[in-house]
Design a protein that fits this description.
The protein has 392 residues and is of the alpha/beta class. The protein has 14 helices and 15 strands. It folds into three domains: 3-167, AICAR transformylase, duplication domain (Cytidine Deaminase, domain 2); 196-267 and 328-384, AICAR transformylase, duplication domain (Cytidine Deaminase, domain 2); 276-317, Helix Hairpins, CATH 1.10.287. The protein has a six-stranded mixed beta sheet. The two termini are 28 Å apart.
């Protein structure tokens, strides 16, 4: 198959639409559904991301894509009991495989952004992973293969219309890539940069300690940023992205956005949130929305009389700013990657408030000395990679 006709492009008025190969055949098979233009953009970017994560870490990897940027990315490390609860899988009587763990963690870190995602998996999709996907609101999945049981489960999703794509894991794209904007063709070499633990050898701060887990987390951060719309910043802890800030014009806004998502991930693990007693009829997506309001500034939207009764069995106490700050201060050991240099120390100040202990960024700002000084103030270890990772 050299080409595949699509229903429309980015929007319904953009016709005709297709994906095609100028040379050779498409490296994909559509096993179910009718993926669209944006589905394929998410699928192909996501596949590159998880493929690189698997090569870099040796672990199965998954990512949850929305609007051509990842909402989450993770490798297949075991789930803690708390993670099982905050990711809403503690009720599943399933022995999760590493691949299932990877997707649960990729989906779970920012569940609101992942709602209606396109999933990319580094390994053959197994039954356990398919069972997790089955219960989430999602547009489709791409993987190098599917077991018979997994494919049967996925084909039943969305009344039989769920998008399932199989990609040839041995496909090697042309080293030169092109795209058109306003009728004008742009051409560049593909970003074939290999990111591994040696990427972080140039540590420029007084603190030179970069534990093995920190190197893995920084690797995950930088590979994630390689496929995230720039400007972008990524916070990672324990083998999963916990906050991604994408497509912001200002780097401090990226850092704040990603930091607020990382904070929400940590606040979900607080006793106040774990103790919320939801009505039995409240579904997972509505629980996610209620938690987001409860831990934010608009908490009265769910705590006001006449509102809480529709969500909770028992009215929760207000989660005060002081209580939230005290809980956030317990989060440490977070890794942060930036796709371009930090122009000011304010990025480090904001990162510190979300528990960041390790930073990787290209360096090269005229204010590098101030950025390094700010890291030293908080005993943060920072590596200069010397490589920018813009993606557009």
């Amino acid at each position: 198959m050299k080409e595949l006709e699509l229903k429309y492009g980015c929007n319904p008025n953009q016709k005709p639409s297709r994906i095609y190969m100028e040379e050779g055949e498409l490296p994909i098979k559509v096993l179910n559904g009718k993926p669209g233009y944006i589905n394929f953009l998410d699928a192909f970017n996501g596949w590159q991301l998880v493929n690189e994560l698997k090569k870099a870490t040796g672990l199965p990897a998954a990512t949850s894509f929305k609007h051509v940027s990842p909402a989450g990315a993770a490798v297949g490390l075991p789930l803690t009991d708390v993670e099982r609860k905050i990711y809403w899988v503690d009720d599943m009587d399933v022995e999760f495989t590493p691949l299932a763990n990877a997707y649960i963690r990729a989906r779970g870190a920012d569940r609101m952004s992942s709602f209606g995602d396109f999933i990319s998996l580094s390994d053959v999709c197994d039954k356990e992973t398919a069972l997790v996907i089955k219960r989430e609101v999602s547009d489709g999945v791409i993987a190098p293969g599917y077991t018979d049981e997994a494919l049967e489960i996925l084909r039943e999703k969305k009344k039989g219309g769920y998008n399932v794509i199989e990609i040839d894991p041995n496909f090697v794209p042309n080293p030169i890539e092109r795209k058109e904007v306003f009728g004008i063709t742009f051409e560049q070499g593909r970003n074939e940069l290999v990111i591994d633990e040696n990427f972080f050898n140039n540590i420029v701060t007084e603190n030179k300690e970069l534990p093995e887990q920190a190197k893995i987390d920084l690797t995950i951060a930088m590979i994630t940023l390689k496929y995230t719309q720039s400007n972008s910043v990524c916070y990672v802890k324990g083998g999963q992205a916990i906050g991604i800030g994408a497509g912001q014009q200002s780097r401090i806004h990226c850092t704040r956005l990603a930091g607020s998502k990382a904070d929400n991930w940590w606040l979900r693990q607080s006793p106040q949130v774990l103790g919320l007693q939801f009505l039995d009829k409240i579904g997972r997506a509505d629980r996610d929305n209620a938690i987001d309001l409860y831990i934010g500034e608009d908490y009265m939207d769910v705590l006001a009389d006449g509102a809480w009764e529709n969500i909770f069995k028992v009215k929760p106490e207000v989660f005060t700013a002081e209580e939230k700050r005290a809980w956030l201060d317990k989060n440490t050991g977070v890794a942060l990657g930036s796709d371009a240099f930090f122009p000011f120390g304010d990025n480090v100040e904001r990162a510190h408030r979300s528990g960041v202990s390790y930073i990787a960024q290209p360096g090269g700002s005229i204010r590098d000395d101030h950025v390094i000084y700010t890291c030293n103030k908080y005993d943060i270890a920072m590596a200069f990679t010397g490589i920018r990772l813009f993606h557009h």
